[in-house]
Each structure stands twice: as structure tokens, then as C-alpha cells.
Amino acid sequence: MTAAAPAPARDRGAGGPASRRPTAGLLASLLAGRAAFRLALLGANTALLASWGQGPYARYAGAMGTAQVLTTLTSLGIEKSALKLVPRARRTGGQLITVFLTSALALTGAVVLGLGCAAAFVPAGDHRLPVLLAGLYAALLGLNTVLVGLCRALGRNRADIANFAALSLIVVAGTGLTALLGWGPAAFIGWILGGTALLDLAHLPALYRAAARPVRRRVAVPAVTTSLLMASGDVAASGTVSLLFTLLAASRHHEQSGHLYLMVLASSVLLNGFGYLLRLFQPHVSLTLRAAADARLDRRFLRRLPRVAVAGALWTAAALALTRHAAQGGLVSPPVAVLLLYLLCVPLFFAVGSLNYLLENATTRTLRITAAGSVAGLLCAVLLGLVLVPAYGALGAVAALAAGEIAHVLAARLLLRTAPEPAAAPAP
User: Fold this and answer.
1) What is the mean pLDDT of the chain?
2) How far apart are the C-alpha atoms of 115 and 403, rounded to whole Å?
3) Which of 7, 77, 78, 312 is 20 to 30 A away from residue 367, measured at CA?
4) What are the angstrom distances between the C-alpha of 369 and each of 52, 188, 352?
5) Residue 148 DSSP code
6) 364-392 and 294-328 helices cross at what angle (nearest 10)?
7) Is the dihedral of CA 388, 392, 398, 403 positive or negative?
8) Average pLDDT over residues 174-200
């Protein structure tokens, strides 16, 4: 296993303002912006369900849920990689911005070109149009995530706060226009798609000015390699959700797609807020972990990973049995049962997310190990989903998602014990 090329020696150490711990006021403002956007999405979808009814909303939810993986593919770990590498760079920060910005624009451009060409040949009333528009929106939202991440890496935190305030307004305005004008799913998605595209364009001038050219190969290759490795966990997670939506839509429980999508939106307030909080501290944590001894980190991971896996497996099985019994006995409605199961699994998601975060930011070796573990988790979730989704519907999809997290932990533990450590394994 070959480690990614380390950054030049003169680039090591604390970078700019982004490498410092965020202040309490800044932290509250940044989290409030993200939380407002997630709550706006949840409130909007509750209103859309009431406006459109179960059938049209289920088709809309299936399209949006399946397209989620494109948000991750167009960001492809670039935001996390930028927050890890740019604060460390003293002289090559501008070149890194160029690499990350170019990569994000190229990925998004490829997706937009493909889906845009397909949408151009689809009639206005065709049922495939919302699916294609949802894909375009997801791709541009992924680009938006990268652009505001690059702004934060440069210390421009106000751009992040303003960005998510604007996204919230776009969603709220689109929901109001849907109620007033009788829009369907295609028109609503087209509205939020257009608003997101305008926001993306607004970020480009400042980032273009911060970029530096030409870019040296020894800067570009480690940056791209780190982005690909750090993307694996997010791609696996969003890919799992998209594939489980596909399995649910093809099963006899297809009408539960709306339940699952509302659950994803509701839980995203917690999980995305938690993930965003981790990323706010990522520059500081990354620099701190560089100074820790690799052997000491390995011992700590080896102790914690099995405990999380065993406790998670027992807890998930008990939570599935409890929520299924409650739904069958009429104690709670099916949507509430799905949300309850997901909330019961949140401690597992938090624990695995925290361990994955530390593995990503420790060394090149641990980054590769958690990347391989995330692929194992994806395979496990999909294989179990083939059995659980037809049997239990949306509840089975949530249980398969939790099982994928457990498989991620077990695979990382196995690889951490067996994978040989390179002679020199600096963090990228």
C-alpha cells in the first residue's frame, strides 16, 4: 500500500485563520445557517406533502432521494480535503484552491451536461422530468457545498452564513409559490435549481481571485488523492441511501418512499449539523493529530471499534423489533415508526461518524483504511437491503443503513490490525 505523496516541508504547520478554533459566536452563526436550511427543507416538504397528496409527493421524494448521491459525487471529498490541506499550506494555498475549484467545476460540469442534454429531449409533462431536474439540483448543491467550504478554508466565514440563509429563502419562496400557483414537482425543483445555480455563480469571482497559477504537480497529485480517499465515506453513505430508495421504489412498499424521504430530511437536521460541527474543527483537529504517535492512535482505535460494532448490532436489532411491533400494533403511524427507528440509530451514526472523522484526519494509512471500510459498509447495506426492504419496507431500509455502518467499523478494525504500516506515513 503506497502512501500519498506528502506536502512539501515548507507547507507544514498552521496556515491562516481557518486553522484556529472557531469562536463561540462564529460557531453559533455557522450552525444556525445550516440548521435553518435543513429546517426549511423539512417544513417545505411537509407543506408539499399536504399540497400534492401522497401519490405525487412519493414520486417527488423518490426522485430527490435517488439523486442524493450526485451531491456527494460532485463534491467528492473536496470540501473536507480543502479544510484539511489549505490551513496547513503556507505558500501553496492558492495552488490548492485552484486544484479544488477546477476539480469541482469539472465534476459538476460533466453531470450537468449529461443530465441537461437528457432533460432537453423530455416533454414538459413527462414523469422523467422531475427525476432529471432533481439530479441537476443535487449536482449544483454539491458544487455549492464545495464553494462555501473553500470560502471557509480561506477564512471567509460570512460567505457560508449568507449562502445558507439564501438557500433557505429560496426553498421557502418556492414552497409559497407552489401553493399560490399550483406548481407540481417539476416546477418546484426547477425553482430551487435555478436559485442554487445563481448562488454558485456568485461565489466564483472571489475564489477565482484567491486561486494561483500555475499549479505544480507535487501540489496537485496529493490534493486529488486526498480528496478521492476522503470522499469514499460520503459517497458510500449517499450511494447507500440512493440505492435503498431504488430498492424501496421497486418493492411492494413503494408508497413508503415519502416516509423515508421525510425521515432523511428530519434526521439531516441532527446528522448534517453534527457533521458540519466536525468540519468546523477539522483544520485544528488535523494539525493536532499530526503530532500524535501512530502506534498510540492505532491502539485507541483498536479498542473502540469492536465496542461500537457489538453495541451497534445489538441496539439496531432491538430498535427494529420495537418499532416494527409498534407499527403493527397501531401504536404509531408508519411514518412515525420509520422516524423513530432512525432516531434510535442516531447514537450509532454519531459514534461511527466520529471514529471515521478521526481516521480520516490522522494519517494516510488510517485514511485509506476507513475508505476501504466505507466500501465494505456500502456492500453490506445493499446486500441486506435486498432482503430487508422487500420484507419490512422503509423500516428495513433504515436497518440496512445501520448495518452498513457496523460493517464499516468491523472492516476498519480488521484492516487496522492486519494492514502493514508504511515506513513513512505522513498525513497528506
Assistant:
1) 83
2) 32
3) 312
4) 45, 41, 14
5) H
6) 10
7) negative
8) 95
pLDDT of residue 4: 41
Residue with cell 444556525: 32
Residue 336 has pLDDT above 50, yes or no: yes
Alpha-carbon distance 395 to 79, whole Å? 32
Here the cell at position 252 is: 411492494
The SS3 of residue 89 is coil
What are the backbone angles phi and psi of residue 137, rounded to the nearest 5°? -65, -45
Using a 10 angstrom Cβ sphere, with 0-12 exposed, 13-18 middle and 19 or more buried, the burial of residue 216 is exposed
292 has pLDDT over 70: no
State the Cα–Cα distance between residues 170 and 188, nearest whole angstrom: 10
Predicted confidence band of residue 334 (pLDDT cuts 50, 70, 90): confident
Q: Are the C-beta atoms of residues 408 and 352 closer than 8 Å to each other? A: yes
Are 222 and 383 in contact by the 8 Å Cβ rule? The answer is no
- Find the DSSP H helices in 93-216: 93-120, 129-153, 157-181, 185-210
- Please tell me the predicted confidence (pLDDT) of residue 167: 96
**CB-count exposure of residue 381 (10 Å: 0-12, 13-18, 19+):** buried
Give the contacts of 140 (CB within 8 A, at least 6 positions apart).
74, 108, 112, 193, 196, 197, 200
Tell the residue number behind the cell numbers 400534492, with chain if given. 52
Are the beta carbons of 411 and 373 closer than 8 angstroms? yes
Give the rounded percent of residues in the chain with a pLDDT score beyond 70.
86
Q: Is there a contact between 33 and 106 (Cβ–Cβ < 8 Å)?
A: no
pLDDT tens figures, 247-268: 988 888 888 888 888 878 877 7
Amino acid 377: pLDDT: 93
Provide the residue type at 422 as one letter. Answer: P
Q: How many CB atoms lie within 10 A of CB 123?
A: 7
288 pLDDT band, cuts 50/70/90, is low
Cell 450526485 sits at which residue? 70
CA distances from 178 to 54, 186, 188, 206 (A): 16, 11, 7, 34
When mean pLDDT is compared over 24-33, 69-78, 134-143, 208-217, the highest value belongs to: 134-143
Crossing angle of the two packed helices 334-362 and 217-249, in degrees rounded to 10:
160
Find out whether 97 and 146 touch, Cβ atoms under 8 Å: no
5 within 8 A of 425, measured Cβ to Cβ: no
- Please report how many Cα atoms fall inside a 13 Å half-sphere around the Cα of residue 303, on the Cβ side: 5
